[in-house]
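User: I'm writing a short report section on ligand binding and want a predicted complex to refer to. Could you take this sequence and magnesium ion and write out the structure as tokens? A short remark afterwards would be nice.
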Amino acid sequence: MANKSKFQAIRGTRDLLPPDTALWNRVEQTAHEVFTTYGFDEIRPPIFEPTELFARAVGGDTDIVSKEMYSFPDPPEATEGSRRFIDAVVAIGEEESTSEGKTKRITIGEKHLPELYRLQEEWKKSDLASLRPEATASVCRAYIEHNMQQMPQPVKLYYMGPMFRRERPQKGRYRQFYQIGAEILGGPDAPAIDAELIEMLMTFFDKCGLHGTELSINSIGHAADNCRRGYVAKLREELLKVKDKLGADSQRRIDTTPLRVLDSKLEHEQAIIATLPHIADHLCDDCKAHYAAVKRELEARGVIYRENWRLVRGLDYYMRTTFEITAQGLGSQNAVCGGGRYDGLVELLGGTPTKGIGFAIGEDRLILSLQEGGKAPAAQGPDVFIAWMGQNAYATAIRAAKTLRNTGFRVELPGTELKFGKALERASKLGSRFALILGDNEVQSGEWTLKNLATSEQQKLSEQALLEYLRR
Ligand code: ATP
Ligand code: MG
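Assistant: Sure. The structure tokens for the complex follow:
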């Protein structure tokens, strides 16, 4: 035997197969429908973007950017980076006149090197692209690129599609996974906007048939001394007192992102974290009022929530409302959605100051939870299997298949003639509901035989009557 190597999907990626794909489609269709009723339109950004976009938006020292992105060189024809590098080198030169006309003598001294190295680094980075690990950055980039701030505000967009993160694959955690998300950009930051977005999300889960979801909310204030920054300083102070008792990750975060210590799932850190100060006690008056109003607005919409003071985000531009939704049957990967307000992000990406809030649903986990809850669709068989015998009948069978399919029925038409018994056997193996039996007799009389495969009942019907019967 020749050495046949078998290919397998790359670790952390997987094939979505029928009948599961029917459930994926149903979920996506539900998202299109529900989000549209709330005035959202779909955006489809590219799957890869400049690495810099994610570095800036998601944050250079997050796990996502520092070690989980799939990046590759993708030099544009003439990069902005190379242009700036060449300009800088030319600027160093001094003009002189020679017999051949004006030339430039460029002498690069040691003092020029730091600036040139810096530009070289920038150039290198501008030549890198990454598969998107999330889509908020792309949506904000598109908002700026297409001058959407000139449209009526706010602009409400949703997206769905694959995201890529090189993390440790496990149940509910993949390297290619799918998100369904929505963003509201521009306009005011009225608490009603936050609440309506969350209401939409809960309606979507409900319409998908996902039960047992839990919504947690929190406010992380804004980046000011009298608000979050003051709290973080206090938190750091308290964390330093208990530093020895914390794990290595948390110890490191005391310096970098103390808020993220609150995220810790480590068993032995839980009792310590429980004693730390709560951000709610350190919010400025505006953020406090905003949070209180968001809760009132949720109540007005009948949305049930739980407050979780440990629900935080590590980046500066995140502010005020944050939320997370968990679902059942997912083990420790039980978050199906994360979201929050990010009023500084568009500006950080080079746009004008713009309010923003959004969420991202983990579609893989949503589907898993639906399946655990018994919402998996059964494999779908044909509505009608056409058992034809003889070339005369075949022509009629082709025409019948076309008519039935046009009407929306799922039809199986065997491409080769089968003996009667074999045809019926194949029809039931496929799980067909009906067999349409077409032989010379049927074609001649114009009375077709329709057999219900569940009850074995058989009846003779004209073509027209058959269509009407099936429609019912
Ligand atoms: P987690 O804490 O579970 O890693 P996260 O904070 O990284 O989640 P976000 O970046 O906020 O998640 O993404 C929103 C949602 O996308 C998550 O709540 C989760 O449902 C889903 N998600 C994130 N990473 C993955 C992954 N690797 N595989 C499958 N789903 C994922
Ligand atoms: Mg993660």
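A remark for your report: Residues 20-37 form the longest helix (18 residues). The chain is about 40% helix and 20% strand.
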